[in-house]
Amino acid sequence: MKFFIDTANLEDIREAQSLGVLDGVTTNPSLMAKEGITGKENILKHYLDICNIVDGDVSAEVISTDFEGMIREGEELAALHPQIVVKLPMIGDGVKACKYFSSKGIKTNVTLVFSAGQALLAAKSGATYVSPFLGRLDDVSTDGMHLIAEIREIYDNYDYQTQILSASVRHTMHIVNCAKVGSDVMTGPLSAIKGLLKHPLTDIGLKQFVEDAKKNESLN
After folding, report:
1. Cβ-based burial of 92 (10 A; exposed 0-12, middle 13-18, buried ≥19)
2. In this predicted structure, what is the pLDDT of residue 220?
3. In whole angstroms, what is the distance from residue 81 CA to residue 79 CA?
4. Active-site residue 87, yes or no?
5. What confidence tens digit (pLDDT) does each residue in 97-109 have?
6. Which residues in the chain show pLDDT less than 70?
7. 184: Cβ contacts below 8 Å, ≥ 6 apart
8. Which of 32, 50, 89, 182 could be bridged to 152 by S-S, CB 3.0 to 4.6 A?
9. Of 87, 104, 198, 207, which residue is the catalytic one?
């Protein structure tokens, strides 16, 4: 399973990259605003800065909600860097735009997906990635992981090459469960990725190893 980090914070991206397990980055207008990145030129530059840190795909989201606007913005984003993936909303014009970009060989990520039917449409339109929002479904008392499993079954039935990018991941068990049901990618915060490192028995064992090593040194 690929690990993407969902942020526009360059320091978090650098730290995730330094772990050696980062495969890509997802961003959106809200994450950009959170980092104080505003204005078209600043946003485009920030995407380039991200591409210069990571080796994998970087999802860059269009703002327009009409077909013509999505095509205009998407082509500009795709021209920025080969790692850019054009992120499109799961609406009618978004599906049309996805089909257009797919025919041009431009990678796409269809986002704001909350049902298996939506994921099926994304795959039919040739999406590179589909982003079901796991955490947001959990927030409204719906089993987000069940949706990931449903999409996996549908894609496997018809050998769709669209990758399931589990988004709105909140914590480490989301990551583990995504891996168990066969999600191709997960995207979440640095804290969730680093959380996979933690186990009290690891800490206890390491502490014991270090103490024993010091005892051995004192005996020599």
Report:
1. exposed
2. 64
3. 6
4. yes
5. 999 999 999 999 9
6. 219-220
7. 1, 2, 163, 164, 165
8. 182
9. 87
